[in-house]
Input
Amino acid sequence: MATATDKTKQGADREFEFEVVDDATEAPINLSTLEGIFVHLIYENLRILQKYSLVSKADFETLTIVDGPNGILSVKLQSKTTQNADLGDIFVEIKTEDDNGDFDDSTKHDLTDDALVTQIVRSVSRDEKNLA
Output
């Protein structure tokens, strides 16, 4: 997880890697066994900056399972998203979904407590492209 000093400039590409662990045991959650995973990067006021999904869904970017058995996944925050992003802290919310016949829409589990990921900071060169 990032620290409060981790900064992302407007217009920059960033990749974030997360280790998903069980709160009670602190053991990694095997992501290979899950039917669905959602990751939301959100502003402090709960507005969504970017959404990611393990399966292809409209309006979601794709997330990558880096090491399923050890609970590691990654998401890419593209420059097209950060270019005009609001300045301030960005948090992550991770949910999983599995098939549970006891509930009408499977079962969704929150895996994070809106942990701080990065801080979007101003960049005067955010619109510059093709520097080579």
Summary: DSSP finds one helix and ten strands in the chain. The chain has a mean pLDDT of 82. The beta strands are 7-9, 14-19, 36-43, 48-53, 61-62, 64-67, 72-77, 88-98, 107-110, 115-121. The chain has one domain: 7-121.
